[in-house]
Write a structure and sequence with these properties.
229 residues, six-stranded mixed sheet, four-stranded antiparallel sheet, 9 helices, 35% helix, globular
């Protein structure tokens, strides 16, 4: 579904990601792990077109989309959930969902409540008053409503308590069960590997090692080296 070919980029003349090659197969969950400063968020911003690559290509479903603007990529079915909460805090939970619900999707909110039950009791509540975990879940639910083909998720567990992290990863499994492809950037390696079909580990702007979750678990000492720099 998604392929990065020798992708390099960053901010102005500062190269953060260098010659990156990565593949996200259709209907799969791919985890992109690594320490702070590895280039993971920059990679997602390059994928969504929020940053212009200095070299290399981004391919989506057999099409070169390197030159496409973010809104054009969104129309193709790519959804980006940035680090943080990605919601409208002054709107109610219901209105947050309605904003992104397709006009012909009359059952959208009912489907969200079925998939994310915790939001069912919060529909009339202002989104900014939800807990951090609930706000993160609302961000995932909004993506779910858009019926995307690929979701890019940046640090879904950041700053959350362990019990809330479990719920967030349950929500990601709910999304994956619909057949959508996921590329999940995460520092919580064990949780990400339990979710993923394929794992890439970044350090210093490059992919250092990749493989199945089983292969990665057999290299935990090596993974620790990358996470500690």
């Amino acid at each position: 579904m998604l392929e990065l070919r020798d992708l390099s980029g960053g901010y102005d003349s500062l190269v953060i990601v260098n010659d990156l090659n990565l593949v996200v197969p259709t209907g799969s969950v791919t985890a992109l792990l690594g320490p702070n400063g590895a280039g993971k968020t920059t990679t997602l911003r390059l994928l969504m077109g929020l940053l212009k690559p200095q070299s290399g290509e981004v391919w989506f479903e057999g099409r070169d989309i390197t030159a496409l603007a973010p809104q054009e990529r969104a129309k193709l079915g790519i959804c980006y959930i940035p680090e943080g909460r990605a919601i409208f805090p002054s709107l109610s939970v219901r209105d947050n969902l309605i904003v992104l619900s397709p006009a012909d999707d009359e059952d959208g909110i009912e489907r969200v409540v079925a998939a994310f039950p915790v939001l069912g009791d919060r529909l009339g509540q202002r989104a900014g008053t939800l807990s951090g975990g609930e706000q993160r879940m609302l961000g995932l639910a909004r993506a779910y409503l858009q019926n995307p083909r690929l979701i890019l998720v940046d640090e879904p567990s950041l700053g959350l308590a362990p019990i809330i992290i479990d719920r967030i990863f349950d929500s990601l499994r709910t999304l994956a069960a619909t057949g959508v492809s996921l590329l999940v950037v995460e520092q919580y390696a064990q949780k990400a590997m339990a979710l993923a079909d394929e794992v890439y580990v970044m350090a210093k702007g490059q992919i250092q090692v990749s493989g199945s979750p089983t292969e990665m678990r057999n290299q935990l000492d090596l993974l620790g080296t990358y996470f500690t720099g």
